[in-house]
C-alpha cells in the first residue's frame, strides 16, 4: 500500500502537480450580518409583491502570511408601497491561497473568481434570513462578477475616480 496525502492524491489536491496554478479556499465565514424587519408584523401580511434592490461590493485584502481575504458585501432591500419591509447587510468572507498565479492575473482572479466561489453560500444565507424573518425565501439572481469588476475598473480609471 502506498502512502498518499490525506486528500487521496499524489501532489496537490485533485492530483494536480504541486506547482499548477490554483485558487484554494482555506476558510469562509460571516464577518458581519444584519437583518432589519422594521414594519413587522404588518410587513408580513401578503399583498402587493415587494420590489427589491441589491447592492454588491467586492473587497480584497492581502495578508502578511501571503493569503488573501476576499469580502463579498451584499445589501438587499425589499420595499412595498414606498416603505422598507426588510433590509439585509451581509459581509461574507473567504480566506484564499493562490498558487502559481502570475502577478498580472492576481487582481482578476481575486475580484472575479473568488467571489464567484463565495456567492452561492452568501445567497443561501440571504434566502434563510428572509425565511426566518417571516417572508418567502429571497433567491438572489446570479451575479456577473466579471461585469462588477469591469465597472469597478472603469470607475477607477475615470478622471477623479477611485476603486
The CATH fourth-level homologous superfamily: SecB-like
Per CATH, the class reads Alpha Beta
CATH topology, by name, is: Bacterial Protein-export protein SecB
Mean pLDDT: 85
Extended strand count:
4
Percent of residues in helices comes to 10-25%
Query: Which percent range describes the beta-strand content?
Result: 25-35%
> Largest sheet, if any?
4 strands, antiparallel
List keywords for this structure.
single chain; 163 residues; alpha+beta; Bacterial Protein-export protein SecB; 4 strands; elongated; disordered N terminus
Structure description:
The protein has one domain: SecB-like (Bacterial Protein-export protein SecB, Roll). It is built from two helices and four strands, in the order ββββαα. The chain has helices at residues 106-132, 145-157, and strands at residues 22-36, 51-62, 68-80, 83-99. Helix 1 packs across helix 2 (145-157). The radius of gyration is 20 Å and the shape is elongated. It starts with 21 loop residues before the first strand and ends in a 6-residue tail after the last helix.
Amino acid at each position: 500500500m502506498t502512502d498518499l496525502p490525506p486528500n487521496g492524491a499524489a501532489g496537490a489536491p485533485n492530483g494536480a502537480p504541486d506547482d499548477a496554478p490554483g485558487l484554494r479556499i482555506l476558510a469562509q465565514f460571516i464577518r458581519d450580518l444584519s437583518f432589519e424587519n422594521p414594519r413587522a408584523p404588518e410587513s408580513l401580511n401578503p399583498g402587493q409583491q415587494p420590489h427589491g434592490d441589491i447592492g454588491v461590493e467586492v473587497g480584497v485584502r492581502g495578508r502578511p502570511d501571503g493569503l488573501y481575504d476576499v469580502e463579498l458585501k451584499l445589501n438587499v432591500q425589499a420595499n412595498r408601497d414606498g416603505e422598507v419591509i426588510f433590509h439585509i447587510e451581509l459581509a461574507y468572507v473567504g480566506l484564499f491561497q493562490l498558487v502559481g498565479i502570475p502577478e498580472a492575473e492576481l487582481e482578476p482572479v481575486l475580484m472575479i473568481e473568488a467571489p464567484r466561489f463565495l456567492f452561492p453560500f452568501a445567497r443561501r444565507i440571504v434566502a434563510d434570513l428572509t425565511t426566518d424573518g417571516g417572508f418567502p425565501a429571497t433567491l438572489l439572481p446570479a451575479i456577473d462578477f466579471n461585469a462588477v469588476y469591469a465597472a469597478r475598473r472603469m470607475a477607477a480609471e475615470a478622471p477623479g475616480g477611485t476603486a
